[in-house]
Automatic annotation (TrEMBL), chain A:
GO molecular function: structural molecule activity
GO BP: cell division; cellular response to amino acid starvation; chromosome segregation; positive regulation of TORC1 signaling; protein transport
Function: Component of the Nup107-160 subcomplex of the nuclear pore complex (NPC). The Nup107-160 subcomplex is required for the assembly of a functional NPC. The Nup107-160 subcomplex is also required for normal kinetochore microtubule attachment, mitotic progression and chromosome segregation. This subunit plays a role in recruitment of the Nup107-160 subcomplex to the kinetochore. As a component of the GATOR2 complex, functions as an activator of the amino acid-sensing branch of the mTORC1 signaling pathway. The GATOR2 complex indirectly activates mTORC1 through the inhibition of the GATOR1 subcomplex. GATOR2 probably acts as an E3 ubiquitin-protein ligase toward GATOR1. In the presence of abundant amino acids, the GATOR2 complex mediates ubiquitination of the NPRL2 core component of the GATOR1 complex, leading to GATOR1 inactivation. In the absence of amino acids, GATOR2 is inhibited, activating the GATOR1 complex.
Cross-referenced InterPro entries: Sec13/Seh1_fam (IPR037363), WD40/YVTN_repeat-like_dom_sf (IPR015943), WD40_PAC1 (IPR020472), WD40_repeat_dom_sf (IPR036322), WD40_rpt (IPR001680)
Main localization (coarse): nucleus
SUBUNIT field: Component of the Nup107-160 subcomplex of the nuclear pore complex (NPC). The Nup107-160 subcomplex includes NUP160, NUP133, NUP107, NUP98, NUP85, NUP43, NUP37, SEH1 and SEC13. The SEH1 subunit appears to be only weakly associated with the Nup107-160 subcomplex. Component of the GATOR2 subcomplex, composed of MIOS, SEC13, SEH1L, WDR24 and WDR59. The GATOR2 complex interacts with CASTOR1 and CASTOR2; the interaction is negatively regulated by arginine. The GATOR2 complex interacts with SESN1, SESN2 and SESN3; the interaction is negatively regulated by amino acids.
Family affiliation: Belongs to the WD repeat SEC13 family.
Organism: Monodelphis domestica (Gray short-tailed opossum)
Protein name per the record: Nucleoporin SEH1
Automatic annotation (TrEMBL), chain B:
MF annotations from Gene Ontology: ubiquitin protein ligase activity; zinc ion binding
Classification of source organism: Eukaryota, Metazoa, Chordata, Craniata, Vertebrata
Pathway: Protein modification; protein ubiquitination
Chain segments carrying region Disordered: 579-598
Main location as per UniProt: membrane
Function: Catalytic component of the GATOR2 complex, a multiprotein complex that acts as an activator of the amino acid-sensing branch of the mTORC1 signaling pathway. The GATOR2 complex indirectly activates mTORC1 through the inhibition of the GATOR1 subcomplex. GATOR2 probably acts as an E3 ubiquitin-protein ligase toward GATOR1. In the presence of abundant amino acids, the GATOR2 complex mediates ubiquitination of the NPRL2 core component of the GATOR1 complex, leading to GATOR1 inactivation. In the absence of amino acids, GATOR2 is inhibited, activating the GATOR1 complex.
Native source species: Monodelphis domestica
WD repeat positions: 116-158, 203-245
Stated name of the protein: GATOR2 complex protein WDR24
Length: 361, 788
């Protein structure tokens, strides 16, 4: 069962992104009101705003946490064409500021000439790196060579995607068999049909990112994209939020078969496609094990998706977004199943997956 | 005619038609102005001064006003304005300080009318009076404003701002006599045209220069100002003190601001540098522009709405030498592309969700037109051209939390905490882990552990004679061990009291796990012990359990079962004896190993009898039962399956527990991948101890070195306070043990706590105990120790 806890966010305009930190104890929100807020979970489970500050001179589209190994670090990106890296300073706070943590700007990345639409830190094993993408279709990858110095970021790669970019996602796999990979989604809504999801892979030989795949079937504007946490899988799972929710699997074709040096080839399958939101889907987010996908759409609902043992993805829950307790028998059924089913990924899904889908479809 | 246009505009259509179009100018534009009939536009710049006719499909050059043989500085225009009453009258401000008027009605090629050379520096702005035909105002870099009567040769009055340069001057639409002037020092002054001696009012509007201002066309006394501080502010001038009522944050300095006709709260801005776009803002939603024109490739220098009463056509000139007509429906709307929702999955299965309030509250209201977001908003705007969408949006933020008892990741944490990965025999580990899984109602996982136990430890279908033999011996000479196993089994079947006890034991064993317990010795112990165990007893029990409890898994169990039942009749596989556990070898090893677990001491003491039974068993094993190797591909596939299912915990746990038995089957890279994934997950849940245990137990070189890389311990001797260069625990300077426990006087290895005041300390447990009774230092130094 889910319990909705409504939080008075007190942002002056739309909230565009919410992000949990690595340990799930902190949360950051960003808004069009040009500010970012950091929320900490108290012992009682309440979320308290511990910092709120103006970060940009335009709408802040995304906020994201770095791995805690690098400190308490946030990155934000904005309509004002910049991305910024922030670090929390503790100690040396006077009485007035006690309780309010103090965030300082470590760097501003000003390379983009248009709105920076997404920013993501690379998986930890790659070091302190981050990727940004911008509305003019350029993905930029920055690296802080010295992890102790967050003010020094060098632009390592510039990937031109040709299409206006709206979202990026790093492949989180820590396997040495998987080269660094980044998926880019485009919200370009011009009528020309072209793949709106592109996947770029780092090539050790050329030391460049090269396009590995395009998801040709995705032709509508993409609003969000997310690789599932890998957790030792040999393949990758990618969720795409477009006019519906789609889930793809990407199985690397064995390197020996492809010509060495070239980009990895993938066997791409679409394993699920749902238009239950009946509208644009804005966000997709994976749970920590990559077994449950949450999506939110213009219908104001969050829907949970999960695969049964046959790899059939089903809706296992619907959450109303207004923070009111979830009621209604159908959704309740789905939700209780969702929490139950997650205890045992393989056995119960077949049952609740199908029952839930009957109810919700 | 204007009346007509106005009416039709208000009805939704308009007399103005056209498309987004542009024409290339010969030179960068500095300013543009439009004729009152909305059919012509004048473009002025340092090297250009031309009039274009705005036609349906294109701009057509109508007149070049830069005539004459040698180019005069008088033609170098900083600003241009077209009279709104008289379509033949133009005025330009030259960079050399000259104000020029032009009469298009002149028959000659040179249309220049009058020349006022009164300003000493660049004239930044010229402005006609909105209703008075002959009144012209200019503002200059020299800090003066001048009012000209076009019927006279010289200025009629001069206004001194008493401060820095004048950037903009604008006649009020509301008050006949009032005009506003903005200054580089951030001030705005209001003047009465009749009183040149002193301004009526002055206020500081911006930090840094105020580049522009614009009176609201609808007679409201609203003044918009834009400055280098990237802000547009709207002032209500009706009150005694100018009151800031709106403030818009742009992303670059604001060079021009123009109220949008027919839209009370809209204004257009462009920037002086960096930003080439033109934004249209709804001042009530000051953070994000409602529309944006992105055509220009260089700084936009002039913007003007094509018609006084038409909100859809905007003309602009730019340093990129183009003149554009922008159509509102072609504008990009950042807010339409912006995500109205944020969603994030938390660690424990909680979901943070932020959504635009209108999406989550008025569910029923918006049902009739789902997906309307996909239509460009101008359709809506057409219906109501003056005021469109909701002025301010806000989001509702909520966190959906899983209830503490049903936390969807609770099983992971529990499992990680309770699994035993080493330190006991394989059979015990499997049993224990199966029990843990079962208690967390993860039946399939429990089943898997049980099967692993069957595959790898018990003789399986050992002939009964042999079995009796070993049992007889076991029960006679191994009472301790037997009871242990029994207890384990019983708790597995649900006896609560015993369960708790055994849990406690597991814990302590996990914690006390010493670095000296290497995996290899464990393995060997396990194997020998495994063949010692009264196997059929265990097996029988477990099978009974399965049948009763796990109907779900029945299929699964049966698919596996035939595979090891089958070999009874099958051709016995020839197999190198080396692969099977051979008793004597192991016993020797064991005798050498310094392991001190209770069970083991027992087994060791029984060597002579046991060796006999072991040999006999291993003999029968190879004949009657498939060797574990037979299953390894199956087990490998199973681990892969778990990993693909997202349960890397199972994969890694089995990998560690089985150790060498399965290690060869799975390539190093995959193992490493599993380990790193699992460790990452453990660290997310802050299970540091377990993550370290996993690192320590792993056999991957890349993983085991995780804890060694960039970890340096600097140790100082507690006696002489010098760095300990030696590897041991004896300081080579003062020849004493460096870190002895102040309570028990033994050397402390591992966790050492000490008081930072007197640097005495010792074992954590001992110090804790000591502090319960006394606050003084146990070393007797008299210090009142403090531990934080």
């Amino acid at each position: 069962m889910f319990v909705a806890r409504s939080i008075a966010a007190d942002h002056k305009d739309l909230i565009h992104d919410v992000s949990f930190d690595f340990h799930g104890r902190r949360m950051a929100t960003c808004s069009s009101d040009q500010s970012v807020k950091v929320w900490d979970k108290s012992e009682s489970g309440d979320w308290h705003c511990t910092a709120s500050w103006k970060t940009h001179s335009g709408s802040v589209w995304r906020v994201t946490w770095a791995h805690p190994e690098f400190g308490q670090v946030l990155a934000s990106c904005s309509f004002d064409r910049t991305a910024a890296v922030w670090e929390e300073i503790v100690g040396e706070s006077n009485d007035k500021l006690r309780g309010q943590s103090h965030w300082v700007k470590r760097t501003t990345l000003v390379d983009s000439r248009t709105s920076v639409t997404d920013v993501k830190f690379a998986p930890k094993h790659m070091g302190l790196m981050l990727a940004t993408c911008s509305a003019d279709g350029v993905v930029r990858i920055y690296e802080a060579p010295d992890v102790m110095n967050l003010s020094q970021w060098s632009l390592q790669h510039e990937i031109s995607c040709k299409l206006s970019c709206s979202c990026i996602s790093w492949n989180p796999s820590s396997s040495r068999a998987h080269s660094p990979m980044i998926a880019v989604g485009s919200d370009d809504n011009s009528p020309n049909i072209s793949a709106k999801v592109q996947i770029y892979e780092y090539n050790e030989n050329t030391r460049k990112y090269a396009k590995a795949e395009s998801l040709m079937t995705v032709t509508d504007p993409v609003h969000d994209i997310s690789f599932a946490p890998n957790l030792g899988r040999s393949f990758h799972i990618l969720a795409v939020a477009t006019k519906d929710v789609r889930i793809f699997t990407l199985k690397p074709v064995r390197k020996e078969l492809t010509s060495s040096g070239g980009p990895t080839k993938f066997e791409i399958h679409i394993v699920a496609q749902f238009d239950n939101h009946n509208s644009q889907v804005w966000r997709v987010s994976w749970n920590i094990t990559g077994t449950v996908l949450a999506s939110s759409g213009d219908d104001g609902c969050v829907r949970l998706w999960k695969a049964n043992y046959m790899d059939n993805w089903k809706c296992t829950g619907i959450l109303k977004g207004n923070g009111s307790p979830v009621n209604g028998s159908s959704s309740q059924q789905g939700i209780s199943n969702a929490s139950l089913g997650s205890n045992n990924p393989n056995l119960q899904n077949s049952l609740n997956g199908s029952s839930a889908s009957r109810k919700h479809s | 005619m204007e009346k007509m246009a106005r009416v039709t505009t208000a009805l939704g259509g308009n007399t103005l038609t056209g498309r987004t179009m542009y024409c290339h100018l010969d030179a960068p534009a500095n300013a543009i102005s439009v004729c009152r009939d909305a059919a012509q536009v004048v473009v002025a710049g340092r090297n250009i001064f031309k009039i274009y006719a705005i036609e349906e499909e294109q701009f057509v050059e109508k007149l070049n006003l830069r005539v004459g043989r040698k180019p005069s500085l008088n033609f170098s225009c900083a600003d241009v304005v077209w009279h709104q009453m008289d379509e033949n009258l133009l005025a330009t401000a030259a960079t050399n300080g000259v104000v020029v008027t032009w009469n298009l009605g002149k028959p000659s090629r040179n249309k220049q009318d009058q020349l006022f050379t009164e300003h000493k520096r660049t004239v930044n702005k010229v402005c006609f009076h909105p209703t008075e035909a002959y009144m012209l105002l200019s503002g200059s870099q020299d800090g003066y404003m001048k009012c000209f009567d076009l019927r006279k040769k010289d200025s009629v009055s001069t206004f001194s701002g008493q401060s820095e340069s004048v950037r903009d001057v604008q006649f009020s639409i509301r008050d006949y006599f009032t005009f506003a002037a903005t200054f580089e020092n951030g001030n705005v002054q209001l003047w009465d045209i009749r009183r040149p001696d002193r301004y009526e009012r002055m206020f500081t509007a911006h930090n840094g220069p105020v580049f522009c201002c614009d009176w609201h066309p609808e007679d409201r006394g609203w003044l918009a100002t834009g400055g280098r501080d990237k802000m547009v502010k709207v002032w209500d001038m009706n009150t005694n003190r100018a009151k800031e009522i709106y403030c818009v944050q742009s992303i670059a300095s604001v060079a021009r601001v123009k109220w949008r006709p027919e839209c009370k709260h809209h204004l257009a801005t462009c920037s002086m540098m960096v930003d080439h776009n033109i934004y249209v803002w709804d001042v009530r939603r000051p953070y994000i522009p409602s529309a944006m024109f992105e055509e220009h490739r260089d700084v936009t220098t002039g913007i003007v709405w094509r018609h006084l009463h038409d909100p859809y056509f905007l003309l602009s000139g730019s340093k990129d030498s183009t003149l554009y007509q922008h159509i509102f429906k072609d504008a990009s709307q950042p807010i339409e592309r912006a995500n109205p929702e944020g969603l994030c999955y938390g660690l424990f299965g909680d979901l943070a969700f932020a959504a635009k309030e209108s999406l989550v509250t008025s569910d029923s209201n918006r049902k009739p037109y789902p997906g309307d977001r996909r239509h460009p908003i101008f359709f809506k705007r057409k219906l109501d051209p003056t005021e469109q969408f909701e002025s301010v949006s806000s989001s509702a933020l909520s966190v959906f939390e899983t209830e503490p008892d049903s936390s969807s990741m609770g099983w992971f944490v529990d499992t990680a905490r309770r699994y035993a990965l080493a330190g006991r025999s394989l059979a015990e580990l499997c049993d224990h882990n199966a029990k843990v899984a079962k208690e967390l109602s993860r039946n399939q996982v429990a089943q898997t552990w049980t099967m692993l136990r069957i595959i790898y430890c018990s003789p399986g279908t050992v002939p009964s004679a042999n079995l009796n033999h070993s049992i007889g011996k076991g029960s006679a000479s191994l009472p301790l061990m037997n009871s242990f196993n029994l207890k384990d089994m019983a708790s597995g079947m649900g006896s609560e009291a015993r369960l708790d006890r055994s849990k406690g034991e597991n814990r302590s064993e996990n914690i006390l796990l010493d670095s000296s317990t290497t995996l290899i010795t464990n393995d060997e112990n396990e194997e020998t012990e495994g063949s010692d165990v009264p196997a059929d007893y265990l097996l029988g029990d477990v099978e009974g359990d399965e049948d009763e409890l796990y109907l779900m898994d029945h299929e699964n169990a049966h698919t596996e079962e035939p595979e090891y039942v089958l070999p009874q009749e099958a051709f016995p596989l020839r197999h190198e004896i080396v692969d099977n556990p051979s008793g004597p070898d192991h016993l020797q090893d064991k005798a050498d190993s310094p392991h001190v677990s209770g069970n083991e001491a027992e087994t060791v003491s029984l060597t002579p009898v046991e060796s006999f039974s072991l040999i006999s068993i291993s003999h029968t094993l190879s004949e009657s039962r498939l060797p574990p190797d037979f299953f390894s591909t199956l087990v490998r596939d199973m681990l892969r399956f778990y990993a693909e299912q997202g349960d890397v915990q199972m994969a890694v746990s089995v990998l560690i527990v089985l150790g060498e038995r399965i290690r060869k089957e799975i390539d190093e890279q995959t193992q490493e991948h599993w380990y790193t994934s699992y460790i990452d997950l453990l660290q997310r849940f802050r299970l540091w101890n377990i993550s370290n245990q996993v690192i320590k137990l792993s056999t991957c070189r890349a993983i085991t070195c995780l804890n060694q890389a960039s970890t340096t311990l600097h140790v100082n001797c507690s006696n002489c306070k010098r760095p300990m260069s030696n590897k041991g625990w004896i300081c080579d300077r003062c020849r004493q043990c460096a870190s002895t426990c102040a309570v028990c006087h033994h050397v402390v290895k591992g966790l050492f706590v000490w008081c930072q005041g007197c640097s005495h300390g010792g074992h954590l447990q001992h110090i804790l105990k000591w502090l319960e009774s006394s606050t003084h230092c146990p070393a007797g130094c008299g210090h009142l120790c403090e531990y934080t």
